[in-house]
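residues and backbone:
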Amino acid sequence: MKHLKFATLGFATTLLGTSLIFSTSLFAENAENNESRLSALTKYTRVLATIEKYYIDDLKINEIITKSIEGLLTNLDAHSSYLDSKHYKDLKIQTEGEFGGLGITVGIKDGALTVISPMEGTPAEAAGVKAGDVILKINKQSTLNMTIDEAVAIMRGKPKTSIELTLVREGETKPIKITIVRDIIKIDSVYSKIIENENILYLRIVSFDKNIVDDAKEAISKNKDIKGIVLDLRNNPGGLLNQAVELTDIFVESGIIVSQKGRMEDQNTEYKATKEGTLSKTPLAVLVNGGSASASEIVSGALQDHKRAIIIGEKTFGKGSVQVVIPMPNSEGLRLTVARYYLPSGRTIQAEGVTPDIVVYPAAVPQKSNEAVASAIKEKDLKKHLQGELLKLENGEDSSKKDKEKSDKKSENIGKLKKDKIDTEDLMKDLQLKTAVDIIKVLSIKK
């Protein structure tokens, strides 16, 4: 017993000694960290005081602090930023879904202010802005070292006022100048059409706002007896995460749709599919391009990983990080990157994007040359047509007006048709869409 007591006491003494050494070590580590922080803050204060005293312009200390905070957040990553009271207010306006602007989503790519995508039906799209364009100047102001928030603040303005963008576009030998007239930007985020003669549902998601899943479900429920669905996410800059998850859930029965991971435990989340109401058998093709970002990449990447859809088009933008807006005093805020998205396979979207299963570049569908088409016209058909034209001339008829009226009427009818259908002529102008339709046809035959 004595030996046992001694052994126990010895163990306790050893444990106490180990604890003491550990506590001393921890104290030393904390002291070292505190000293390091104090040294860094002293250095920062010294720099601020030097700028305040010697800089050529008489800057007040508040201005210097604000500029240093802006620079700090800009250097963290392309999506973190400091929001002063004006930018904080602008952000609130933007989330309401209606504002005066151009209708483009921008990001920083390879250090340059780049158009992620022009939104459909907006002044930017009408003026000819394209996904991938690098904005060199806004009016006369260079975008070099300009933050996203600064660029957006300049591009927004009163409706019916104009702005000039100088763009660098791949394939063009010199910069392009485009004048755009601002307008109220309000987007219809979902619309659907039937592809004529194919019985395939075309479902276009323009952006992921709060209503897109309900609208998508309504379009699908109205068109139950279809061969398949083409989901068009081209030039879709993203939006709400929950809408991306719920849209994917329509087509996936089980498993992870997307996960996000950050430094803080409460930022680590997995979003999983549910079986109820899933369209697991309907053939599905998804269209993407360089303007598909964020939520669009989550949907297309998750469907690809679950082998639920064929992804067609071009590599996506590569925006897979999570930002939160943290309110600060005086109606200011910090937009801070706190996590990254990961697809079901564990791969990241950030700076990688989603590579399509079938790479197809935008173009019209290759067709027979004019000579080949001409040779296909029968001689008797051509003669009959010419004879009809000669007869009109002999009778003194001016057919141009009647032809125009017929043409206008035909165009009007086509316009009405195109509201809910995509005809063969439209399909032949879009090689990516035509490829998706062909894929659906093959998948429906296999089914």
About this structure: The longest strand covers residues 332-342.
